[in-house]
Amino acid sequence: MTPNLAPIPELYVSYDSAQKLKGEAASLPSWDLSPRQICDLELLMNGGFSPLKGFLSEEDYDSVVDTMRLANGALWPIPVTLDVSEKFAEGIEVGSDIALRDQEGVILATMTVTDRWTPDKAREAEKVFGADDAAHPAVNYLHHTAGKVYLGGPVTGLQPPVHYDFKSRRDTPNELRSFFRKMGWRKVVAFQTRNPLHRAHQELTFRAAREAQANLLIHPVVGLTKPGDVDHFTRVRCYEAVLDKYPSSTTHLSLLNLAMRMAGPREALWHAIIRKNHGLTHFIVGRDHAGPGKNSAGEDFYDPYAAQDLVRQHQEEVGIEMVDFKMMVYVEDKAQYYPVDEVPEGSTVLNISGTELRRRLREGLEIPDWFSFPEVEAELRRTSPPRSQQGFTVFFTGFSGSGKSTIANALMVKLMEMGGRPVTLLDGDIVRKNLSSELGFSKEHRDLNIRRIGYVASEITKNGGIAICAPIAPYATTRRAVREDVEQYGAFVEVHVATSLEECERRDRKGLYKLAREGKIKEFTGISDPYDVPKDPELRVETEGTDVDNCAHQVILKLESMGLIRAQ
Ligand code: PPS
After folding, report:
1. Smallest CA separation from ligand 1 atom 5, residue
2. Ligand 1 centroid distance, CA of 399 (Å)
3. 409 is catalytic
4. 63 pocket-lining for ligand 1 (C-beta < 6 Å)
5. Cβ-contact 304, 321 below 8 angstroms
6. Which CATH code of 3.40.50.300, 3.40.50.12280, 3.10.20.880, 1.10.3720.10 fits the domain covering 387-561?
7. Looking at domain 15-157, which of 3.10.450.50, 2.30.130.40, 1.10.579.10, 3.10.400.10 is its CATH number?
């Protein structure tokens, strides 16, 4: 491939025009962009998504969904659409302009709305992602996060989104093109990644560059990646450490603010086009590139080689050469890495999978020197300390009077006796007094109450503390949402206090059951309101015939078995 490092067209207007337009745009209807839309807009404006000139029109969208091409025939595999709420869309006339703002309200661009339509999302899911299956993160996003209506039209760029982190490592396509020109790098191989790099990656990327007689660009995605990935702050510190392991002046690191869709083959082709726009001549594509994991039947969404096949098929048209990602393995007796198909016969090969690495980090176990670099390991350990040093949440649920608060209090005292981490009790009554005093007991209010508890618990967990929650929390879907909030940061231990309704009513410690039976308290859980029994809690405690101390001790044993507290 011959490098073409001439500047690529951007959608920005001049500084003076931008100042003028900003003043005028202040009175336009405004759309507050989602984090994904901000990523998309940045790459639209700086030419990373060339030849797109804005968010897709309906005609282009249909064509991209069906054929991976814009209506004019240009290759473009992923719909880049501006999804908005029905309410916002109702007030927008086709032909009018809207302002696109970041989450602080700063106007980044204006868009002339040429199209407004309600997409068939199931069809988009089937055609673009291969299945209408919510186990796929982008399909889940499409149905549960994205707005119902799409707006399309050309964008006028006023200013790029502001980034406060790693500014010097972020390059627009034109900045990278001029860097390559200045360095005299005529051939450059891009390596796309959303994971920390270890020794095998360093070996395979350097080998790929050497084979193509090219320089190397480590081009990690720092926009949005797969939920659950290592955060980009940690990853960039790791990449910076690995950069020193390459011979000097051979390799460059640049961050790409892309919002990935995990769309496998289509995504790989999209990545190739984006890299071409950034001035790259070669692009490494591996097994299961941008794969989303397993579908709801436990199978892979895509054939592991489909991404390589699709990129290979279109590489001439895109103008970038695909380089096979060579799986590297460590050969113990030779004390060096080999491509898996060149391992000397009879040798012992060592490898550590991603899952195994995460387990070792979680449990504070050794990571061998042949696997990673000490600096990378140190960064990962800083971000993922062993579970016994991380925050977590214990979430009790059960009927009123089941004993949740009493066990929660006993647990709190036992954990405080052990020391090490701050413990906060979010008991039902405490929360209703301090956080939710205006709420009643309708489904809507109970949900709000539990989501508030979940938010506070997730913040405590994120900051390394222990949150003990003890509300009734009668709805399974709400408990699940809280679990998701917390699990971003640490373990969520659901404890069902399984005292029967009859026993709670017999105890009637607050006299509320009597009033509920008499109809004096409405919507009373178990009497006149539902309770979804947890199907699969981490622990179920039976309180009838067991004292409080013993119940709390069962929780302690559970926490120990999960590695959340160390055996005394
Ligand atoms: S919920 O459903 O999780 O929001 O409820 P929670 O915040 O835990 O509040 C439950 C306590 O409020 C008292 N109470 C009622 N409970 C259930 N239903 C109705 N209608 C009701 N009205 C008042 C009751 O004392 C609960 O306390 P606990 O500690 O659970 O016995």
Report:
1. 472
2. 8
3. no
4. no
5. no
6. 3.40.50.300
7. 3.10.400.10
